Amino acid sequence: MNDRSKDAWRNALGKLAPLLALIVVFVLFAVLDAVQPNGGQFLSLRNIQAMLISSAPVMTAALGMTVVIIAAGIDLSAGTAISLCATVLAWVLERQFSIELAIVACVLTGCIAGAVNGLLISRLNVAPFIVTLGTMTAYLGAAKFIAEETTIRPPLEYVPKWMNGLATPTPHPWWLFVAAGVWIMLGLAIIMGLVLRYTVFGRYVFALGSNEQTARLCGLNVPALKVAVYTLSGLFIGLAGVYQFAKLKVGNPISGVGMELKVIAAVVIGGASLNGGRGTILGTLAGTLLMQTIISGCTQLGVKNPAQDIILGVIIIAAVTLDQWRQTRTA
Amino acid sequence: MTGISKQFGPTRALDGVSLELSAGEGLALIGENGAGKSTLMSILSGAQPADGGRMEIDAKPYAPHGPQKARQAGVAMIYQELNLAPDLSVEENILLGQESRRFGLVNRRAQRQRAQAALEALGHGNLSLNIPVHQLSIGMQQVVEIARVLVSKARVIVFDEPTSSLTRADAERLFETITRLREQGIGVVYISHFLEEVRRVCDRFLVLRDGRSVAEGVLASTSEADIVSSMAGRRIDELYPSVPHSPGEPLLTVTGLSGVLKPTDVSFELRRGEIFGLAGLVGAGRTELVRSILSLDPVQAGEVRIGTAIPAPTPKARLRGGLGFVSEDRKGEGLALSRSIADNMTYTRLRPYSRWGWMNLKQRRLAVVHWMEALQVKAASPEQAVVAISGGNQQKVALARVLHQDADVFLLDEPTRGIDVGAKATIYRLMGELAAAGKAVLFVSSYFQELLQVCDRIGVMSRGRLREIRPASEWTEHSLLSRAIESN
Fold first, then answer.
1. In whole angstroms, what is the distance from residue B454 CA to residue B441 CA?
2. Identity of the residue in A198, A201, A219 whose CB atom sits nearest the CB atom of B315
């Protein structure tokens, strides 16, 4: 094999690494589960349906976070912003407005939260880590404020039936195979993948993340680009808020606390670099599902929750270490 | 050092170079950029291993693994960029990593004595040991760095372009310091482009060209012209291909441009079909001037006019107005290294390939392939990451970006720095062709010979001011230098 095809091969392998890891882990759990007494549940349709739908809020937010991380940013406020959005949705619904209006308000809240992050980062010129560390707390406060420090429980009859389709594992027309919410999410993922590859915006995001100075001297409007990136991420946070509400049926201001770390972990396991300039939607999907597979698989095998957490931690570090090692070898 | 060789991929950086230095001797290492001086010295100082040849110190074999080992063996290097911890004091910097210890604690008294002794040996005994080094001038910081090397009992000290960021007075003091070092029996290797200063501190010289030693001898009995011609070799005509062009009407007019520190009140005109050289030493404010023209740095006063238009003070508007820019700092800001050649080449003009924000990648690929061929960019494919190609090819990508952008005014900041001779020739020819096509080229360089060969007119900057503009034929390397080191 000559050098060129070797490089191409190695490159392709690198891009697919998270997907391969997902397959390996999935098969591993399937086998371990199948051989244990009264096992075999892991591979059941119901379990797979449940895995997919319960990863929905994290995965949706991770689509936006992928763009932020490629642009060399970070959004620590994602978790509390998701619960803020869900709380807004519940608040609007509780006041007997239509579900459509509630969803619009929820998504809009996400966009505003993102835009605020973007504006603060580009106007104040403060590191994204610090800005979003601040807004993380502020959004939590805002959500508690709206919910008057409790949980908003809109009457269940206000929640339309189809909204359950976003959250229950079994799809409503059975031929959908998985819940409608999963299909919507997949559609969004495909759109984002295309946006990153085939649009001017996508190219600019990579340029910004790879080298902000270069972006600037090539005449890109860097502050506007940053606001756009965080607002787009906010849109996905708003959508994640809808999923979160569909799942919980209540507006709990603290339900998203800590979720941002899962979202970031999913993106990073998917091969994105926190230094920016690198990351893929496919990787992020694989990263989210990898984490979900481990949680679900461990549950099926009867591994206790604390052990699951430790395993997840190890996986995050291992994924990034492997990726770095691969990077230095190819560079 | 005998028969030292070093290979970087396909390029032969060093090919059987030998070098000898006695105690107390001053040896000048001369050569163009990319001749192999830095590579040779990085091998001597242990920063990288040689592929062939051997080294001896006091007739004992010497093969350092890393700069630390080289220091222990008595070889130290003073780089252009100083390596000091800015917030630590003079004393702490001098003894960093070689503290006097007693029972695991730092012995302050012994510390002070050693630092003081080192400074006195350099003739700077009155320098306060307690002030943080960032409060010192660059010249005094350099003294601290040399003192640090003295404390580590260096036998050989390599100076790499040490005066490039010094004022004239500081440079004078450095020459005295080096003379003192030599009197104490320390061998000095001195790398510089400036033949005059080389004569001040050295007695022998060695000229490198394309990784080979091409001349050596005693400075006192060799004329400047001889040294210059052995530096450049016979290839002057090939290296500087002449493309006929003639200046037309003014295209870029800069009036009274001032930045925060530099530039100060700079005015000049750049005409169509002209190559205008901007000479000066590092830190003269040339880069700041170019960045101010592009609005990349904040501007305090002055006007930038392109043709008859005055574009808004943002990089975007300036680029739209017809300016194109190649940064001196290729890796730091010029290129997005992890992105592809195609991306880097087209960032300034994606519009021809996009509709409603969606791109036609196939069409773009055709354009990119065209420019890669035109500039002879050697790479596996347009999708290859820029980080994976050589410096010369990276520079061609940076230039191709401006060509693809179809700029009228080319602002090229040190476009030939750190690239091989072949790539240089390509760039010189390109500048001539651009001028012939009615573009205007601003060529910033610290290397006066190339300015004299390539430019129509040359302006000299020092301390943020544009001192004088003359036709290139009325300048010499010597007159350029004497204006460049002017200090008020």
1. 11
2. A219
Kindly report the number of other CB atoms within 10 A of residue A291's CB atom: 23
- Tokens at residue B115, please? 């630092």
Burial of A260: CB neighbours in 10 Å, binned 0-12, 13-18, 19+: buried
Is this complex's ipTM strictly greater than 0.95?
A: no
Whether residue B334 and residue A217 make contact (CB cut-off 8 A), yes or no, is yes
| A278·B337 Cβ contact <8 A | no
Q: Which two structure tokens, joined as six digits, stand for B439? A: 């573009």
Average pLDDT across each block of 10 residues of chain A; the chain has 331 residues. List them in order: 58 77 87 79 82 89 96 94 95 89 95 96 92 95 92 84 76 74 91 93 94 90 95 96 90 90 92 88 93 87 85 86 71 45
Cβ-based contacts of B323 with chain A (< 8 Å): none
- What's domain B238-484's superfamily in CATH? P-loop containing nucleotide triphosphate hydrolases (3.40.50.300)
Nearest to A277 among B339, B354, B357 (CB): B339
Domain with CATH 3.40.50.300 in chain B: 2-235, 238-484
Question: CB B338 to CB A278 under 8 A?
Answer: yes
Write out pLDDT tens, residues B312-324.
899 999 999 999 9
Q: Which helix (H) or strand (E) segment is A282 a member of?
A: helix A281-301
Phi-psi region of A309 (alpha: psi -120 to 50; beta: other; left: phi over 0): alpha
Cβ atoms of residues A238 and A244 within 8 Å: no
Domain B2-235 has CATH 3.40.50.300: yes
3-state helix, strand, coil in chain B (%, to 5): 40, 25, 35
Closest residue in B to A197 (Cα–Cα): B359
